[in-house]
Specification:
The complex is a heterodimer of chains A (385) and B (281).
Chain A (H helix, E strand, L loop, with lengths): L3 H4 L3 E6 H12 L3 E4 L6 H14 L2 E4 L3 H13 L4 E5 L1 H17 L3 E9 L5 E5 L4 H6 L8 E3 L4 H18 L2 E7 H5 L1 E6 L43 E3 L13 H16 L2 H4 L2 E4 L6 E6 L2 H4 L1 H9 L4 E6 L1 E3 L3 H8 L4 E5 L6 H9 L4 E5 L9 H12 L1
Parallel strand pairs in A: 2-3, 2-4, 4-5, 5-8, 7-8, 12-13, 12-15, 15-16
Antiparallel strand pairs in A: 1-9, 5-6, 7-14, 11-13
Chain B lengths: L25 H15 L6 E5 L7 H4 L3 E4 L5 H11 L4 E7 H7 L1 H10 L3 E7 L2 E2 L5 E2 L23 H8 L3 E6 L3 H12 L5 E6 L3 H7 L5 H11 E3 L16 E8 L5 H13 L9
Parallel strand pairs in B: 1-2, 1-3, 3-4, 4-8, 7-8, 9-10
Antiparallel strand pairs in B: 5-6, 7-10
The complex binds iron/sulfur cluster.
Chain lengths: 385, 281
Amino acid sequence: MKSDNEAILTGNHFLDGDHACCEGAIAAGCRFVAGYPITPSTEVVERIAQRFPLIGGIFIQMEDEIASSIAIAGASWAGKKSMTVTSGPGFSLMMEHIGLAAITETPMVFVNVQRGGPSTGLPTLPAQSDMMQARWGSHGDYEIIALSPNSPQECFNFMIDAFNLSEQYRVPVLFMMDECVGHMIEKVVIPEESKIKLVERKYTSLPPDKYLPFKPGENMVPEFVKAGDGYKIHVTGLTHNEKGYPVINAEAQDKLVRRLVNKIKLNSDKIIRYEEDTVENADVVVVSYGITSRVCIPAINEARAKGIKVGHLRLIVVWPFPEKRIREISGKIKSFVVPELNLGQIFYEVERNACGKADTYLVSHAGGTVHNSEDIYNVIMEAAK
Amino acid sequence: MILENPVNQFLRQDRLPHIWCPGCGIGTTVNCFTRALLESETDLNKVMIVSGIGCTGRVAGYMNLDSFHTTHGRAIPFATGMKLANPDLKVVVYSGDGDISAIGGNHFIHAARRNIEILVICVDNFTYGMTGGQVTPTSHIGAINSTTPYGNFEQPFNLPFLADSSGAVYVARWTAFHVHQLARSIKEALQKKGFSFIEVIAPCPTLYLRRNRLGDGIDEMKYYKEKSVVKNNADTKDVGISFKGEIVVGKFVDRERPSFLESMNVHYKKVLGDSYKTYGE
Ligand code: SF4
């Protein structure tokens, strides 16, 4: 197998978000990808298919998204960093295995280049309408991590974070792009290998007779073994004990599911990431993510020119949601404005955490293109009154 | 002196007793599987067992091997990912007829077409046991199931034919009565480089037999004994089973065809030359 530095295309490039996402995955050490063609995400796997044979990776185009989303689970247990790539309709088919990844604590990255829905919707046009599906789409109680890039450079950078988080917390990580970010072409700087910080999964040093595959370790995350290491582990999607054996009762359920949720909840301060621009002393704070975090900037600037004190809080990690920060801010400002390419998803999170201490305004958009800056501006002005 | 059953080492003793009903055929097939492992002298650390959901889906949980109890119908794509990610592993899928041929049917034919190097053992009892005995794609015409209370009228799958025509390199069928032949077949299939498929006809006394007034597990064994005909190399299109009809058993297909990874390596080497490093070496 070729060494990783040959795999990393250090230098300046001109790439779209889909291609940058592929390069980010490769730089993160991903060497197994299973996917199924779907617009507007296909370019990611097309580039993977071209790159992988030359760098010792395996790409397989599966028969559907259900198969893709579980082939990566098998590959992950076999020791490879693995991902699948899709868009709305395929994402719907993958929900089952987001749940499997959650309960079996399997590191897996799911890329969703969002398009307009429901159903086939707008295959070639953008939306941000899968954000709640990302959080809640599989049945049962569980937590995931979701990131939202707003440029090809971030597609590269945050893919590395996505894999790092997935390996560190043994949790499915959802990479929530959108058609605009996926297809926009910008400069992407790929750093030298030594500048790329990778987090590898933590393999146990215990011998097989002392090792419990689902016993919480550091950060409540169990230590790993690979399939074939001689530990004879049992991995099941059933509720299980620390040994991995199925236990079908309320106590085992409470113990397992609470840990799976707390593993992310209680570590959320370490996971959450956002960017702030003059949020302190603001009267109105715009909360945005993904492509909308760029589209809203002219509107913010225009409102500021009119003398309105506008802050901007841009989510990078969307799930877990920065509940605490929204609560802190809400006591100090007049209102939040949430523009998103859907009819209200993250808006409700903001509203819930504002606890009535700040007004919340949604700038909704059904998708197909991005907001008119003027529409966001008008709501900011209204929110400042 | 008390001699330990040689099969014990393959079972997770701390998980016994198992959940299967008295007279169920699944345990018999597991016994054959363990004997095949014992005789084949494969490195057990490298044998992976992957199951879907259902009564047979529980096999993974009782085997003292790295074992993966996945989602309904998806054992084959899980196994595909596992095998491709680490070609040193020997990956066995063990599941039932509903899991493999209904919800997982699409994965079955594609894994066979690609010739993914896995062994698929399908315990076919013509019904969904875990959920209470509903009709499956292999239920015979006329058979009573909880969702065909007036009898089934759908044409069943002939699984060996499906596997054969999709490209499997090894296809066999035995019943729970043919324990020696089954163990031998599993041992043989474990050595195949490609997609291998073994269908094991097995009794579900609790649901299928009772509902169809076919007696108990013993009666079913008598039926297998009386109505099975060994026809090695039989044309798989002729081995369909009808209600209470003859059961053709044997090794139907044993051929060579490059596996997915072999084809991939040969192809990339050809088109990419020295810039391609053989995968899995
Ligand atoms: S329900 Fe049928 S298949 Fe399931 S364990 Fe009982 S006898 Fe076996």
